[in-house]
Design the sequence.
C-alpha cells in the first residue's frame, strides 16, 4: 500500500522536509538514508566543524601547501569558478568573511576601516585551483560553500529518492525545492512563494511537476538603519550591501543548484541590471520594490 | 542576450559534471564505520552412489563453518579488520580408485570416519585516502595435521576522477604438513612444506552511470609438497602414494561486467574466468548473477555458475602401467569434469542490520567415480554503526 510520507527535520541551519509516496515498509529506510546523506553533506562542507573539507581548506590558507580534494569537492569548486565568471565576480565563495563585520542583528553598519582590512582577502581570482589541488594564497582567506551547497544537497536527495525507487515526491531544504515527480495522479505540487514583505505569507503559488525552484530575496536577513534597508547580499568587491532593484527572484530550472544560482545572481545583478534574467533560458518570477511581479512565469 | 544563454549552458555543464561525480556508483569512500558480521554455513556433501564405491562409507563430509569478522576505524584514514573462522568436518573422503571386474573405475573411501577441526585468524590493516588505498593482510590457520601462515599486500589506485580503479596485490603463504598416523601408514609425509606466491593486476572502469567493466590477470607459483598427504593411487595392482610434481605455475584471467537496469531496479553481474597451470589443467567458468532490489529493504540474488576443467597431464583414475616420471594422482580434483552451481540468496536490510540467507546446490559430472556434489545453506547477520 503506497501512501504519502512526510518527514520534517532540521539540517544545514534550515527547516527541511521530504515528501514522497512509498510503501509503509520502505518509507522509514528511505527517510533514514535521505537524512543520513544530508547529514554527511553537511558534515563535509560546514564551516563549523574542524574536520570538514571547508575547514581543512581554510586552515591551509597561506601555509604554502595546497589541499588535495576529492572529486565531489572538485566538482563544487569547478562550479564555484563558473559561477564567479558568469556573475562577473559578484558571486564569490571567498566573500563569506564579510560576515565578521556585517552583523544584521546589531543595527550598526560595519566600521569602514575593518571592512577595508578584509577586502584584500576576498577574491576568487586569487585562489589557485588545479584539480585536485586547491590553495588559498593568503592567511585569513576563506571559502564557504553555503551559497549553493543546500541547493546541491536538494538535487542529491532527489537522485537518492529516485535510486530508492521513489517516483512521486519533493525535497524542500529551507525553501530550496527539488521535485522527484508529480503526485501519483499526475497533479503537480503547489509551491508557495514567500511574500517579500509579509512574513509567513505566500505572494504566489506555482504548480511544479518536475525540476526545481529556488528563491532569493532581500528579506532573508537585513537591517533597517535610518529608513535605509541593508540586505544580506554583499558585493564582494567593496564589501557593501547591495541595493537590489528586485526584492525577490524565483527561478525554476532542471536542477535546484541552477535555480538557486540564477536567483542569487539575478538579485546581485539587479542593482545595475534589473532584467538580467530576460532571455537567460530559465523560468522566473521577479518582484520589484513596488511589489509588482514580472517574468515568464506570470502569464 | 546571447551571453545570458551561455550562462545557463556554462552553469548547467558544471552542475552536470558535479551530479555525475557524486553518483553513489562512482564513489568508493571509506565509511569510517564499525562493522560486525557473523556467518554460519552448513555444507553437506552428497552421498556416493553404491555402484561407484568398492569399499568404505558412502557418506562424505559434513562441514560446519562459523565466521566472525569485525572491522573498525583506527584513525581518520585507517581501519583494521579481524576475522575468525572455525570449521569442523566429519565423514569419509575418497582414498583411491581401483578398477572393478569390468575394468571400470570404482572408489575406495577412507575407512574410519574422520573428525577434523580448523581454526583461522586473520587481520587486515587498510589505509586509504580519496584516490588510493593499501591493505596489509596476515593470517594463520591451524588444524591438527596442517598449519598455514599467509600474508598479503594489496592496493587500489583510482584514476579518471574516480571512474577507473587499478587494483594490484601480492600474497604468499607457507604451509606445514604433518600427516596424522604417519607411524601407521608408511610414507605419509611429515614436516613437509608448501610455498605459494601470487601476484595480480586488475583494472575496472565505470563506463556509464549503469555499467561497470573490469579485467584481472594473476600469476601464482607453488612449490614444495603439492601432493595429497592421504590419497593413494592404484598402479598395476600396487597401491602407491599420491605423488605430484613439486612445482606448479598458474596463470588466470577474468573479465567482469556489471550492468544496472534502473527501471527494473536490478543489476546483472557477469563474470568469465580462464585459468591454466603447467600441469596442463585449464579451466573456464561463467558466472551469471541477477541482483534484484525490491524497494530499499529486500534484495534477491539468483545466480548460476558453469565450470569446466581439463585433466592434469599425469592424472589417471587408475594406472595400468608405471609412469617413467613417477607422478601418480587419481584425485578427482585433477580429472576432467564440468560442474554447475545454482545459488539463491535473499538479503533483508534494516536500518543498521542486514540478514542474508543463501542456498547453493553444486553438482559435478565427469568420469571420476568420486566427483563431488553438495548443498550448502548459510545464514549471515551483519551490522554497522
Sequence:
Amino acid at each position: 500500500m503506497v501512501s504519502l510520507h512526510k518527514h520534517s527535520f532540521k539540517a544545514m541551519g534550515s527547516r527541511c522536509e521530504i515528501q514522497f509516496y512509498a510503501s509503509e515498509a520502505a518509507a522509514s529506510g528511505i527517510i533514514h538514508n535521505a537524512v543520513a546523506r544530508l547529514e554527511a553533506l553537511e558534515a563535509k562542507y560546514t564551516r563549523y566543524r574542524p574536520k570538514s573539507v571547508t575547514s581543512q581548506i581554510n586552515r591551509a590558507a597561506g601555509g604554502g601547501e595546497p589541499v588535495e580534494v576529492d572529486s565531489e569537492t572538485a566538482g563544487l569548486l569547478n562550479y564555484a569558478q563558473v559561477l564567479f565568471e558568469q556573475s562577473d565576480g559578484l558571486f564569490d565563495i571567498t566573500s563569506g568573511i564579510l560576515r565578521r563585520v556585517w552583523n544584521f542583528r546589531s543595527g550598526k553598519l560595519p566600521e569602514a576601516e575593518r571592512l577595508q582590512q578584509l577586502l584584500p582577502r576576498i577574491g576568487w581570482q586569487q585562489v589557485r585551483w588545479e584539480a585536485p589541488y586547491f590553495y588559498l594564497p593568503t592567511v585569513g582567506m576563506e571559502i564557504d560553500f553555503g551559497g549553493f551547497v543546500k541547493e546541491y544537497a536538494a538535487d542529491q536527495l532527489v537522485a537518492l529518492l529516485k535510486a530508492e525507487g521513489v517516483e512521486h515526491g519533493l525535497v524542500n531544504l529551507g525553501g530550496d525545492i527539488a521535485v522527484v515527480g508529480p503526485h501519483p495522479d499526475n497533479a503537480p505540487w503547489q509551491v508557495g512563494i514567500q511574500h517579500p514583505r509579509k512574513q509567513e505569507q505566500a505572494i504566489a503559488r506555482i504548480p511544479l511537476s518536475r525540476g526545481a525552484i529556488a528563491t532569493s530575496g532581500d528579506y532573508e536577513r537585513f537591517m533597517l538603519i535610518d529608513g535605509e534597508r541593508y540586505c544580506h547580499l554583499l558585493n564582494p568587491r567593496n564589501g557593501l550591501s547591495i541595493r537590489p532593484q528586485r526584492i525577490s527572484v524565483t527561478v525554476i530550472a532542471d536542477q535546484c543548484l541552477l535555480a538557486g544560482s540564477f536567483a542569487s545572481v539575478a538579485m546581485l545583478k539587479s542593482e545595475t541590471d534589473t532584467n538580467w534574467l530576460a532571455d537567460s533560458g530559465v523560468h522566473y518570477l521577479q518582484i520589484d520594490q513596488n511589489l509588482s511581479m514580472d517574468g515568464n512565469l506570470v502569464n | 542576450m546571447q551571453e545570458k544563454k551561455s550562462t545557463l549552458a556554462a552553469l548547467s555543464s558544471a552542475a552536470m559534471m558535479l551530479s555525475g561525480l557524486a553518483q553513489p556508483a562512482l564513489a568508493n569512500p571509506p565509511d569510517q564505520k564499525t562493522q560486525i558480521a557473523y556467518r554460519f554455513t552448513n555444507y553437506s556433501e552428497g552421498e556416493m552412489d553404491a555402484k561407484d564405491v568398492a569399499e568404505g562409507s558412502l557418506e562424505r563430509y559434513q562441514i560446519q563453518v562459523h565466521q566472525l569478522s569485525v572491522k573498525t576505524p583506527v584513525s581518520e584514514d585507517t581501519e583494521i579488520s579481524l576475522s575468525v573462522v572455525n570449521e569442523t568436518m566429519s565423514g569419509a573422503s575418497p582414498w583411491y580408485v581401483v578398477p572393478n571386474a569390468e575394468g571400470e573405475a570404482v572408489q575406495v573411501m577412507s575407512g574410519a570416519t574422520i573428525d577434523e577441526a580448523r581454526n583461522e585468524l586473520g587481520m587486515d590493516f587498510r589505509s586509504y585516502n580519496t584516490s588510493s588505498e593499501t591493505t596489509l593482510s596476515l593470517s594463520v590457520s591451524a588444524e591438527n595435521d596442517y598449519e598455514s601462515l599467509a600474508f598479503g599486500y594489496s592496493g587500489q589506485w583510482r584514476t579518471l576522477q574516480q571512474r577507473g580503479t587499478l587494483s594490484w596485490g601480492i600474497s604468499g603463504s607457507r604451509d606445514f604438513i604433518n600427516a596424522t598416523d604417519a607411524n601407521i601408514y608408511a610414507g605419509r609425509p611429515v614436516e613437509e612444506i608448501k610455498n605459494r606466491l601470487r601476484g595480480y593486476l586488475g583494472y575496472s572502469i565505470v563506463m556509464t552511470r549503469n555499467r561497470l567493466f573490469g579485467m584481472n590477470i594473476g600469476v601464482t607459483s607453488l612449490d614444495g609438497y603439492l601432493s595429497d598427504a592421504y590419497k593413494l593411487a592404484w598402479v598395476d595392482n600396487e597401491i602407491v602414494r599420491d605423488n605430484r610434481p613439486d612445482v606448479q605455475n598458474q596463470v588466470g584471467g577474468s573479465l567482469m561486467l556489471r550492468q544496472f537496469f534502473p527501471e527494473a531496479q536490478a543489476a546483472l553481474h557477469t563474470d568469465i574466468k580462464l585459468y591454466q597451470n603447467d600441469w596442463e589443467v585449464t579451466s573456464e567458468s561463467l558466472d551469471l548473477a541477477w541482483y534484484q532490489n525490491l524497494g530499499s529493504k529486500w534484495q534477491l540474488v539468483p545466480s548460476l555458475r558453469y565450470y569446466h576443467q581439463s585433466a592434469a597431464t599425469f592424472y589417471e583414475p587408475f594406472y595400468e602401467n608405471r609412469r617413467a616420471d613417477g607422478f601418480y594422482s587419481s584425485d578427482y580434483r585433477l580429472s576432467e569434469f564440468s560442474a554447475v552451481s545454482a545459488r539463491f540468496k535473499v538479503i533483508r536490510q534494516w536500518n543498521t542490520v542486514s540478514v542474508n540467507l543463501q542456498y547453493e546446490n553444486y553438482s559435478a559430472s565427469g568420469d571420476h567415480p568420486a566427483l563431488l556434489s553438495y548443498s550448502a545453506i548459510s545464514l549471515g547477520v551483519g551490522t554497522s554503526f
Q: What stands out?
A: Chain A touches chain B through 48 residues (CB under 8 Å). Residues 24-45 of chain A form the longest helix (22 residues). The longest strand of chain A covers residues 2-11. The two ends of chain A are 39 Å apart (CA to CA).
